[in-house]
């Protein structure tokens, strides 16, 4: 369990901070919240106090009833200075949402609120998750401030693209999803824990940091391939790459050496992976050919095009009469990998099915492609699968074991998938030892 201090700034995205607190406490972390005055216009103290079970502070001169203690800790016998005691006790300080104004203040070393004063006094890792209008996020001043923050060692979780606060407006600037922010926080916490252990300091393990894949070489494919039709058009799919990125993050936390082969990702790859960007099925096949032999586990989460145009036009096709496009099948990459894997190598397939008995179809693919396991989901169900932060899957393994997971966040699904990977690897080790 880690102690996380959360700073909440004013903005419509402040409601997501409550979701972040709920997710963090569900993972076993202890959370305290501080707010700016403006943030109270969007979310009141009572919301965070109900979730954390601890008082919320807004003003630097405000007395803290808990005397700087986090939930589950005994308060100190003296009455400390609240902002100094909270940051002295926390394992990480996260500001989400962080406004453009707050980013500028922290970058310049200003301390005119409890949130910014805590940032200046904090010696623990700091993570900021900005949220603002696209014009403000892309402004030269904001870009310079973000660069300054990174230079200072502050981890920035970039905003996502999507619908913004203004009616009908779409762009980059919406707060990253709470699970994404929490994943970065846990990554930062785990790195801090490893550094402390390396320096000979004592400390407990971060919740969720099981190291059962330490040293295991894992390849994760993610995103959706695109097959060109002409100079500007392509045939593709709606995969954002979120599931594969979640798998890469979860594998990193469990100690794996991760290579992420990303096809047209809509989300950032996690820090710490060997990231290989690709576009087409041919690109993906080439990247896998170069790296497959050295891998212990391959998780084929990418949505790979089943067909590509038989002819690709060099120029842009102009509007005119109807056009018939002939498609040819692409290579079945996962089946090819399974056919040439060495003993002990695991190849896990993914099947995005649409309605009907999708589990039966996944079982058939598992058998036909000779996979070690397959992860199936029904993308016809609203709220899961493509372009969603959540998923619901059925995992089917070669030994007949089946497990349903979700609906839940893709990071939670990734953890469950890696539990099965660890089980299958343990089975492989036992078989080899019994020979």
UniProtKB/TrEMBL annotation:
* TM segment ranges: none
Q: Kindly tell me the pathway this chain contributes to.
A: Cofactor biosynthesis; coenzyme A biosynthesis; CoA from (R)-pantothenate: step 2/5; Cofactor biosynthesis; coenzyme A biosynthesis; CoA from (R)-pantothenate: step 3/5
DNA/pantothenate metabolism flavoprotein C-terminal domain: from which residue to which, for each copy?
213-423
Q: A GO molecular-function term, please?
A: metal ion binding
Which InterPro entries would you find in this protein's record? CoaB-like_sf, CoaBC, DNA/pantothenate-metab_flavo_C, Flavin_trans-like, Flavoprotein
Q: What is its EC number?
A: 4.1.1.36, 6.3.2.5
Q: What cofactor does this protein call for?
A: Mg(2+); FMN
The note on the cofactor says:
Binds 1 FMN per subunit.
Write the signal peptide boundaries. Answer: none
Q: Provide the Flavoprotein domain boundaries.
A: 3-183
- List every stretch annotated Phosphopantothenate--cysteine ligase: 218-435
Q: What does the record give as the reaction this protein catalyses?
A: N-[(R)-4-phosphopantothenoyl]-L-cysteine + H(+) = (R)-4'-phosphopantetheine + CO2; (R)-4'-phosphopantothenate + L-cysteine + CTP = N-[(R)-4-phosphopantothenoyl]-L-cysteine + CMP + diphosphate + H(+)
Q: What is this protein called?
A: Coenzyme A biosynthesis bifunctional protein CoaBC
Gene3D superfamilies referenced in this protein's UniProt entry, alphabetically: CoaB-like, Flavin prenyltransferase-like
Q: What family does the entry list? A: In the N-terminal section; belongs to the HFCD (homo-oligomeric flavin containing Cys decarboxylase) superfamily. In the C-terminal section; belongs to the PPC synthetase family.
Stretches the record annotates as Phosphopantothenoylcysteine decarboxylase: 1-217
- Record keywords, A-Z: Decarboxylase, Flavoprotein, FMN, Ligase, Lyase, Magnesium, Metal-binding, Multifunctional enzyme
Give one Pfam family. Flavoprotein
Gene Ontology biological process: coenzyme A biosynthetic process; pantothenate catabolic process
Q: Does the keyword Nucleotide-binding apply?
A: no
Q: Note the coiled coil stretches, chain numbering.
A: none
- Residues the record lists as binding CTP: 306, 316, 350, 365, 369
């Amino acid at each position: 369990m880690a102690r996380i201090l959360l700073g909440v700034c004013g903005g419509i995205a402040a409601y997501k901070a409550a979701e972040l607190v709920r997710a963090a406490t569900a993972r076993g972390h202890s959370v305290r919240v501080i707010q700016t005055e403006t943030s109270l216009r969007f979310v009141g103290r009572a919301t965070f106090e109900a979730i954390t079970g601890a008082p919320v502070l807004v003003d630097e001169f405000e007395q803290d009833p808990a005397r700087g203690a986090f939930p589950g800790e005994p308060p100190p016998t003296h009455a400390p200075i609240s902002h100094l005691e909270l940051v002295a006790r926390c394992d990480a300080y996260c500001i989400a949402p962080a406004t453009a104004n707050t980013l500028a203040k922290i970058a310049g070393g200003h301390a005119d609120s409890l949130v910014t004063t805590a940032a200046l006094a904090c010696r623990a890792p700091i993570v900021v998750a900005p949220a603002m209008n696209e014009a403000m996020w892309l402004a030269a001043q904001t870009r310079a401030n973000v660069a300054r923050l990174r230079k200072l060692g502050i981890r920035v979780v970039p905003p996502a693209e999507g619908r913004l606060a203004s009616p009908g407006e779409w762009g980059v600037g919406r707060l990253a999803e709470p699970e994404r922010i929490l994943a970065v926080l846990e990554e930062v916490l785990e790195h801090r824990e490893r550094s402390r252990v390396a320096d000979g300091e004592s400390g407990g393990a971060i919740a969720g940091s099981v190291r059962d894949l330490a040293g295991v070489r894992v390849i994760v494919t993610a995103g959706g391939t695109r097959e060109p039709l002409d100079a500007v058009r392509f045939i593709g799919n709606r995969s954002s790459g979120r599931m594969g990125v979640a798998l890469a993050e979860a594998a990193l936390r469990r100690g794996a050496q991760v290579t992420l082969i990303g096809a047209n990702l809509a989300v950032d790859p996690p820090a710490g992976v060997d990231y290989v960007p690709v576009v087409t099925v041919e690109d993906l096949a080439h990247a896998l050919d170069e790296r497959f032999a050295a891998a212990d586990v391959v998780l084929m989460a990418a949505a790979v095009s089943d067909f590509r145009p038989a002819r690709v036009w060099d120029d842009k096709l102009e509007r005119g009469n109807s056009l018939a496009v002939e498609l040819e099948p692409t290579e079945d990459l996962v089946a090819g990998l399974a056919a040439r894997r060495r003993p002990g190598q695991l190849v896990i397939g993914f099947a995005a099915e649409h309605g009907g008995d999708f589990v039966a179809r996944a079982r058939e693919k598992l058998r036909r492609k000779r996979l070690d396991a397959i992860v199936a989901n029904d993308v016809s169900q609203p709220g899961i699968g493509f372009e969603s932060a959540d998923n619901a899957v059925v995992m089917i393994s070669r030994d007949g074991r089946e497990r349903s997971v979700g609906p839940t966040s893709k990071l939670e699904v990734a953890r469950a998938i890696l539990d099965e990977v660890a089980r299958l690897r343990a089975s492989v080790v036992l078989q080899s030892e019994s020979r």
